[in-house]
Every structure is written in structure tokens, then in C-alpha cells.
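Quick note —
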Amino acid sequence: MTFSAPVRPPAGRARIARATARWSRRLVVGLVAVGVLGPAGASWPSSVVLAVAATGFLAGIPHGAVDHVLLSRLTGRGLGGVTAVYAACAVATWALLRWGGPVPLVAVVLLSVVHFGLGELEAQPGARGPVAAVATAVAATGALLLPLARSGAEIRAVAAALSPGLGAVVGSDGFRLATTVTWLVAAGVAGVAAVRAGRPVVLLDLVLVGALGALLPPLVAFAVWFGGWHALRHAGRLLVAEPGCATLVDAGRTRDAVLRLARMAALPTVAALATLVVIATLTVTATDGAGSVAEALRVLLALTVPHMLVVLWIDVRSHGA
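Predicted structure written out below.
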């Protein structure tokens, strides 16, 4: 989603977008190289897969940590009240995911896919026409769709821990084939559209995301993409949405803007991490690696719902301005 500010000069936004895109590509290239030159994905020790995945998920938490601040400033409502509503929405979502069965989980996952796809579409604009736009959004989530299609033992175990029976669905031949074909078709349409539109960088991103999803262990691929690609690019958009940060960016003080955003996100991030630790401690054993990652995913999904709503509201507001 975009975080356009009505009077924000485009130069600063473009500079930040290029920087975050460049660093996310470097990270993915490095990890894909490890996957190709190092051990095959199937031989990665489960402990390493789970540790890297947990790191990626945790790295993605800060990118939504200032939602309540932005919402408060844009609506003029008190920060305390906005924070309380935001937290209540996250807690209610977590409770539904924990005890509501598979329906809330499927709904939140589908909403997350839409959120990720639209975020990537905004990060790399240029698709012409609704078909190309939809294809680009779907193809950009290759680090989610392809890992699901490959569904290694760890990701099936995490799926089963999230909801009984989900592991079997994720591992079924029909699901894996449908997911693979969906991504391939979307990537083909999006790639052709990118070339015709003179946007080779979009094609590059699709290739990198596809390589990440196809070559690294499935759980690692998505977690790394979430923390080192989606979250990083989203944070770049925040730098031109938060008024104080945007002012610093416009003045050429990008480092100060990043530090300001980091300070704003620090306390909410610590609170989210503390909540995650408490919930994981109460609900899973120390030896249940898949259960721990599943609980981390459940909390992240719960935080994603108010995050998606805030992003959507800001996007609609900015486009309507």
C-alpha cells in the first residue's frame, strides 16, 4: 500500500524507495547464493531452519510498530485511545486464531496475501491495466506461494500446529499444484507486462522473489522475505509518511529520519516481543520448535489485521485527498 503525503516532494520518496529496494535485493541475492552454493534446502538442519525463520519473523515486527502513532496524528485522536483500540483488535484476532478453528486463520491468511501483494505493487509501480496489476501483485508474493507449494516438513509441522489438519492440506498434491500454477501464470503475465512497460526492475524483483521461494527451505524463504523485503520496503514508505521523518528526508538527513523512526518503533516493538515471549512460554514447550514458530506466526498474523486496516485507511485517505 502507498503512504503518499499530499505535499511531499517526490525526490525524497524516490531516493528512499530506491535504497530500501536495493538493500532488500542484496539480502535476497546473498541468501539465494547460500542456498545454491551451500547445502541443498532439504539438508538444512531443522534447528537452523527454525532459528532463521524465527529471526526473519521477529525482524518484521518493527515495520508495523508506528501504526498507532500515524493513525493518532492523522485523525487527531488521542494516542492512548488509538493504541487501546489497535491492541484490542490484535488481541481479538489472536483469540480467534487460537480458538476459532480454521476459518479465521484462512481469512487472515488471505487478507495477508492481498496486503503483501498490494504492498509490492505500490513499491514497484508501472503495471498497466487491471490484469497486469493483479498478476504483478500475485507474482510478487512468490516467497509465500512457492514455499507453500513446496511445503517442506517444517512448514507442514508449523501449519499443523496452527490448525489441526492444515498440514495435510498444505502438503496435498492438489494444493501444491494449484499454488505452483497460479504463481507461474501470474509471473509470466507480470513479466511480459513489465518488459512492455519498460520496467525491467519489476522483472528483476519477480525473478529474485521466485528464486528465493524456489531455492531456500520453504519456511526460511517466507520468513526472510517478510523481515528483509516486505518489512524493509514498508519501513521506507513510513519515512515519507510520518511528518517528522519526512521533513528530515526532504532536508537530506536520511540517517536522522531512520533514527527517528527507530526510536518511535522501539517501545511498541519491545511490547510486541514481550507479548510473543509470554504467549509462547504459556502455550508451547521449549522443545517444540514448530509450535514455537507457529505461535510466533499466530501473533504476527494477529498484529497484521489492525496493521492492514491502518494501511488501507491511510491509502484510501491519501488517494482521496
